[in-house]
């Protein structure tokens, strides 16, 4: 009997050894996957990484492994030869064979997704809110009113144990739903407060708001609303027909639908220590003056009053016939000239919010009248804003090994020669190329008392005689007249590298609206508003997390996945409102 056992053990060892060294062996049986992966760990890893001896549930809960997703599993991303754009950082002479890498991949793919990835947490008994307290919390956040005043009927349902406090919060949010025209279905003080509060929240996600700069004019505030970027999100949150992807597609712009019992008498902009300017004392002008006289036009003014909805601005509503350019090239200031444009001042460049007139106007970052040349003069500020405000990332967002192909040693531009510079420029410049066809211009060359001129985008229709510029030129005088062409160069939060050619902002919008980074960024912002907790995006790439860090990482992932799956911002909010941290008096969790 002992001899038979010994033979059996030797045969098993021989089979395992054959599996570990033979690259051609066909591994198709599920029963071998876990044990073979663990054999690899035991042979090559456990001496330094003893935690790999622990069970699958531990590895999942600690964030080392993501079931059925090797590319987002930390263990797999560190393996040399994994080819998932991870660090691939292993000690010398400890490389895995192809078979061993495949064993680890198959083991991760075979893991049961039903195993919870949460490190078990709870709320201290003294900190746990009652259902009434939870609802009162969200009522104050959403409406600035206690729950007894905002939705008495929901309080009654809570007392009858028909709904929980979290469910009441979601129902309160849904009361501010918009109809197909963008107007509040139930128009009352409570729903108006909800709509206004979330519009303020969404506005705060964007840094630039001031049209009145050295390169612009205060009159722009009268015709363009700097809060329009927030309306893209507000419309999506409260209008069931505007899913998340609509934020990033098309050329439409949005504005507030407002009502007031009083006629609007004053201009939007107010100078310090000066009285408000009356609308009747001012007129909009365009073009060059002739003996001190200007052509007049009558664009719709940014409205004021109580916000009762979010509406699409009708195409062609406000047409500017002429813009004035004082600089016709990059080198020489020339006398001002009139350029006939017949411009719809609200029509975007595509990609929804990305190419909206206001977002590009506020973030263009170039001198008035300067055309893009592909080198020094491109809209880098806009590109940085997209990465920071919509993806919650700071440049650089690609690793050093990805930078080298973008370095141009023969370039006359110093930053193009250095890896340290191109770490940012590889992403930023390739995005900026998509907005090459615009520059800023005035509606009129100047103005006098009682005259208003404003700043708008001049769009250069690409020439059919010019080819796409697929390289990074030092300076190209025709750059602004070529068809838009760029690349999305980006390593996402989970380590996947993207280097995709992009020909317009709708294509860029499609890429962003498919990325986990956008949904995680949005979940992070909503969580920050609801709880005051500001989770760093670096948490998704850390090797070891505390139980609180792991909890918030998992919570954001759940919220993001719900939004991405349904296309509904409210589903992400629902996940956060139901969370343990939101139901805690101190917005805190402890180990269970």
Describe this structure in words.
- This protein is an alpha+beta fold.
- It folds into three domains: 2-110, no CATH class; 121-174 and 515-591, no CATH class; 217-508, no CATH class.
- Helix content is 35%, strand content 13%.
- It has 19 helices and 13 strands.
- It has helices spanning 2-21, 33-44, 56-61, 74-77, 98-110, 131-143, 147-150, 152-159, 165-174, 189-203, 228-238, 357-363, 380-391, 400-403, 419-432, 505-513, 516-531, 547-566, 569-577; strands at 121-122, 254-259, 283-290, 293-297, 306-312, 319-327, 333-344, 438-442, 451-452, 455-459, 486-491, 497-502, 590-591.
- The strands form six sheets. The chain has a three-stranded mixed sheet with strand order 4-3-9, with no helix packed on it. The chain has a two-stranded antiparallel sheet with strand order 1-13.
- Mean pLDDT is 87; it is low at 1-34.
In short:
The chain is α+β, with helices and mostly antiparallel strands and 592 residues long. The protein has 19 helices and 13 strands.
Shape: flat
| Low-confidence runs | 1-34
Assess the beta-strand content as a share of residues.
5-15%
Overall mean pLDDT: 87
Per DSSP E runs of 2 or more residues, the count of β-strands stands at 13
Estimate percent helicity: 25-40%
Number of helices: 19
The assigned structural class equals: alpha+beta
